Amino acid sequence: MTTTTNAPTVDDVAAALEALRAQVPLVQSLTNIVSANFLTNVLLAAGASNAHIDNAHEAGGFARIAGGVLVNLGTPDDGTAAAFTEAAGAAREAGTPWVLDPVGVGGLPWRTGLAADLLALHPTAIRGNASEIIALAGLGGDTRGVDSADEAAAAVPAALALLEHADAVSASGPVDYLVGRDRDGGITGVRIAGGSAMLPRVTSTGCSLGGLVAAYLAVAPTPLIGLAAAHTHVAVAAEIAEENSTGPGSFAVAYLDALYAVDADTLRARARIEALDLSN
């Protein structure tokens, strides 16, 4: 594995945000029943749009025309599992970037097998918590539903292993760790600090991040820059929201407002992005 120091910078993510607002990409979300409404509001606030097309009859066709596709394994059943496969396969054939969010993988055997099947369709990006990333890579991990029992830094080896199946991978936590390929095909990574302890107290903030990743993949020059832009947008907006809220309810509203208000200058002033040393 060839590693490089060409990691995404704050200027890269600021440019991606400007591209998102200019292009307003349409995301196709195949997400869980808990997150559909909040995810749509997050995408609209950030500057993208969403279509919740998750039936097997339409999922493949829509994936061919969407800007990006999210496949979230939060509440799968036989019907949505078939739609996941249709959408992911069609996205790959059409060159539409798609995101795999392996919710609950490792702790639940059926969805873990489903996630393994989806990996064969080469997601553009994989976004999960540390335990999900470790489990998906086959390295074990203690997954508790949608919560993580592992620190995000511990998932870096698993994330690197998953680059055999994807172009970029992120493990979320108090500090997010991202790895992927640069413009020349070398492997690089970043850590992104910030965010808020309120994020896990509001349902669907993680799932909506997956949708935002799909939106940024539609406009960014590389999958890793798109992944970094989504994580940075969320981290900065969450910090601002915490400064303007008193609890989970007011935070949820302030978070949507902050996603809308954040611009390129805000990212340049507040983003905390640091290149990872992957040489060891």
Global outline: globular
As for the CATH topology, it is UDP-N-acetylmuramoyl-L-alanine:D-glutamate ligase
The count of DSSP E runs of length 2 or more, i.e. the number of strands, is 11
CATH superfamily: Ribokinase
* Number of separate structural domains: 1
- DSSP strand (E) fraction? 15-25%
Strand order of the largest sheet: 2-1-3-4-5-8-9-10-11
Q: Cα-atom Rg, whole angstroms?
A: 17 Å
Please report the first level of CATH classification, the CATH class. Alpha Beta
Mean pLDDT: 93
Sheet with most strands: 9 strands, mixed
Uncertain runs with pLDDT below 50, 5 residues or more?
A: 140-149
Distance between the termini: 11 Å
Summarize the structure.
The chain is of the alpha/beta class.
Description:
By secondary structure, the protein is of the alpha/beta class. The protein has one domain: 3-Layer(aba) Sandwich (UDP-N-acetylmuramoyl-L-alanine:D-glutamate ligase). The chain contains eleven helices and eleven strands. It has helices at residues 10-23, 36-46, 59-63, 78-94, 109-119, 130-136, 156-162, 205-217, 223-243, 248-261, 264-270, and strands at residues 26-30, 49-51, 68-72, 98-101, 125-129, 143-144, 147-148, 168-172, 176-181, 187-193, 272-275. The chain has a nine-stranded mixed β-sheet, with helices on both faces. A two-stranded antiparallel ribbon has the order 6-7. The longest helix is centred in the C-terminal third of the chain and has 21 residues, at 223-243. The protein is globular. The relative contact order is 0.17. The model is unreliable at 140-149 (pLDDT under 50).
